[in-house]
Amino acid sequence: MRRVSGLLALLALAPAAGARAQAAGTSAAPAPPVTVGAVVVTAERPPTQTLLDRKVYTIGNDLQATSGSAAEVLNQVPSVAVDADGVPTLRGDGNVTILVDGKPSAQFSGATRGLSLLQLPASDIDRIEVLTNPPTQFKAEGSGGVINIVTKKTRQPGFSGVGRLSVGDQRRYVLGLDGAYNRGKLKLSGGVGLRQDAKERLTTTNRSETDPASNALVQSQQSIDEHFRRLIPSVKAGLDYELNASQSFGASFSHRELTGQRYFDQHDLSGPTAASPASISDRHSDGHEWSVDADESARFEQKLWRPGETLDLAVQRSVTGERERYAYRNTFTLPAAVPSFDDLRLGLDLVKTEFSADYDLPLAHDRELKLGYDLEDDRNAFDNVGDNLDPATGQRATNPAVTNHFRYRQQVNAAYGQYETPLGPWRLQAGLRLEATHVSTLQITGGVAGGRDDFGAYPSLHLDRALGDDAKLMASVSRRVTRPNPESLNPFTDYQDTHNLRAGNPNLLPQDTWSYELGYAGTVSRLTYGATAYYRVDRNSVTDVITPVSADVVLATKMNLPKSQSAGLDFNANGKLGSQLSFNLSGELFHAQIDPGSLGGAGLQSTNGLNLKAGLDYRPTTADTAQISFTRTDRRLTPQGFVGAINQVNLGYRRQLRPDLAAVFTVSDLFDGQRFTRVVSTPQLQDTYVRHQLGRVAYIGFVYTFGAPAKAKSPNFDYDQ
Fold first, then answer.
1. Separation CA 672–CA 651 (nearest Å)
2. Rounded to an integer, what distance in angstroms lies between the CA atom of residue 318 and that of residue 304?
3. How far apart are CA 622 and CA 625, in angstroms?
4. What is the 8-class DSSP label of residue 40?
């Protein structure tokens, strides 16, 4: 919606009035010259935009962005859910490709992406793009789709910046300083940040299982009280330079580290049903965590002969490393025994290198052709070493039950073509992506080598049609793939948790997904709304199968689920209720069906559910904003049971103290609702697992802008941009 000053409107009407006077045969005296000052026309960016192949969500008005993480603001985005460990799902599917500014990164790959989303500051994010049926210029990896995090970029000339300080309970704090310098052909940007975080997590397991050895029914309980304190410094920088009218160059790097302490107290008991416990033990852990995420990239753009014709070349290298050390003390109450001691050292290194070439050719009659090539090389190393300590001699002996070294390498060669054109009243985008993959694995500990080669063709088709000026009809179809996580291919049985063993499966197949959508979006007065119906079929999705191996011990193994399907209706609406109150509402009605019969399940199962997000913004004055938001993620089926629902409520308040200074107060997870519940129910096992993240966190913070003309609103609140 455009707002034009009254003076500008009068100036526009004046020539027309003079013309009418001359047409009537009258003479009009020349008007004296009028000097007009600068006229500023501002446009309010809509919170939701529906484009041909994606939906775009602006997060500038989310108060949690001041001190929160990317995981917290992602959890407010329609169709997206993020659990307490930062793991995202899209329409209930956890196989989501996370990109930053359209590029992949090692930090958002594999098992580390949840922690990385919890570390990435939300204040760096401008908007979120959700692509449930991505076009072929994006990787085919990720059956759930693509979430592209678009970071903020300052384009105004000269020097500008923003500083942030937020202080929370339990000695939490967030510091950030970002700056940019733009002059002529040169654009520089950079920033530093420091975050200290604290978390507490309570985990309980209640289990009843049939002992495979004695066929007796055994009951067991496990409780863990876990504490974390982490310090996370970060630095980033970027450069863009126009070499000449046809060539430009860009480079960037980012570096973020995590260091902290982690300890827990664990209590275990087990015994025959309806009898006194036969086993009682405790386990205490003192641990230290360290991780690093580093990313470097370079880009070259060449403008070619036709207007808009470009060739982009890019190379990127990202590294994720983790080192963890834990020392354990085990005490035994029943049967009584002397304490034992052991330790564990975990190492993880992920290196992702990628080269891409993209050619874009705009054609006559509003048509466009895109061609590209992409080479991705992933190298992962997993090193776990455990020792048992002899308390009498102090000597350490390697524990073969937890010591393991595993290597994984993947190369993906991809080429794509994409064509966009008007087609009568419709607009068509069609493309095909070809990907050839080579994977090699090596379990060094046991000398077990493996690997596979596969080739796939992944088409996509998007259609949309304008229905007047304020409505649009969309349809799309795509094929996607999800390759097994590297750790899921490691056949080594992990005994870190002596009651809950884990093992991978080197014979896992990639998941194949076909997704179909039909949607509608429109605007009426101050209301924007939309709905999308979808249907998807998954083959060979990877899941956990849990089986008893002895009294009070189970093994979780990775297996392929032959087929599952789901259908649903996404909906969203946002608008204003008067001049001071605005709202947003989104949700997903879904139906899911799986057949785990081949994995020992009970046969065909189905469920219905409703995911819901809602929020209210109240602006009684131009300087004040109050906000409340609610999210609900409904329960989902698993091959052996289900995962329970999660509800959260967030609060926020902002006060603009000066044009360049704002104060913000936020409370996340007001009612402490981050309880992840997983229920397994089979003839041999009844297991209820509850992980409660004590998530209520309060922050008070300040945002200060400098070096640029004062704005009426903080950059974090893009109501008018």
1. 13
2. 30
3. 8
4. -
Amino acid identity, position 263 = Y
Q: Would you say 639 and 682 are in contact if contact means Cβ atoms under 8 Å apart? A: no
For residue 280, the surrounding DSSP H or E stretch is strand 279-303
Higher pLDDT, 123 or 44: 123
* pLDDT for position 29: 46
Q: What is the pLDDT of residues 298-322, one digit of tens each?
A: 999 999 999 999 999 999 999 999 9
Reduce the DSSP state of residue 622 to 3 states and report it. coil
- Residue 130, both tokens: 């959700």
Distance CA 354, CA 412 (A): 10
54 DSSP assignment: -
Round to whole Å and give the CA distance between 678 and 195.
Answer: 31
- 15: enclosing H helix or E strand: helix 6-23
**SS in 3 state form for 97-151?**
EEEECCECCHHHCHHHHHHHHHHCEHHHEEEEEEECCCCCCCCCECCCEEEEEEE
- Strand 553-577 and strand 500-503: the pairing is parallel
Closest by CA position to 142, among listed 111, 116, 120, 109: 109
* Count of helices and strands (H, E) across the chain: 3, 38
What is the token pair recorded at 167? 């202080």
- The rounded Cα 667 to chain-centroid distance in angstroms is 21
User: Using CA atoms, how far apart are residues 13 and 8, in angstroms rounded to an integer?
Assistant: 9
Tokens found for residue 173: 């704090």
What one-character DSSP code corresponds to residue 69?
A: B
Residue 674 DSSP SS3: coil
Contact between 532 and 517 (Cβ < 8 Å): yes
Distance CA 361, CA 611 (A): 41
Q: Which tokens belong to 700?
A: 């008070």
- CB-based contact 601:558 (threshold 8 Å): no
Task: Please name the residues in contact with 143: beta carbons below 8 A apart, sequence gap of 6 or more.
Answer: 93, 95, 480, 481, 482, 511, 513, 515, 538, 541
Q: Is the torsion defined by CA of 99, 105, 111, 116 positive or negative?
A: negative
| Assigned token pair, 311 | 């060739």
Separation in Å, CA 358 to CA 105, 131, 361, 416: 18, 19, 10, 9
Q: Contact at 8 Å (CB) between 374 and 355?
A: yes
By the 8 A CB rule, do 676 and 691 touch? Answer: yes
What is the spatial distance between Cα 688 and Cα 208, in angstroms, rounded to a whole number?
Answer: 9
Question: Which of 72-86, 279-293, 598-612 reaches the highest mean pLDDT?
Answer: 279-293
250-304 per-position pLDDT tens digit: 999 999 999 999 999 999 999 998 888 999 999 999 999 999 999 999 999 999 9
Q: Which of 671, 686, 676 is nearest to 640 (CA)?
A: 686
Distance between CA 619 and CA 614 in Å, rounded? 17
Q: Which two tokens stand for residue 578?
A: 């008067």
Looking at residue 460, the DSSP 8-state letter turns out to be E
Cis preceding linkage at 339, omega within 30: no
Structural domains in the chain, sorted by start:
1-43 (no CATH), 44-706 (2.40.170.20)
How far is the C-alpha of 22 from the C-alpha of 29, rounded, in Å? Answer: 11
Residue pair 559/543 in contact by the 8 Å Cβ criterion: yes
**184: helix, strand or coil:** coil
Contact 701, 663 (CB under 8 A): yes
Q: How far apart are CA 14 and CA 203, in angstroms?
A: 73
Separation of alpha carbons 132 and 89, rounded Å = 11
Amino acid residing at 429 = Q
* Residue 15 pLDDT > 60: no
368: Cβ contacts below 8 Å, ≥ 6 apart: 360, 361, 362, 419, 420, 421
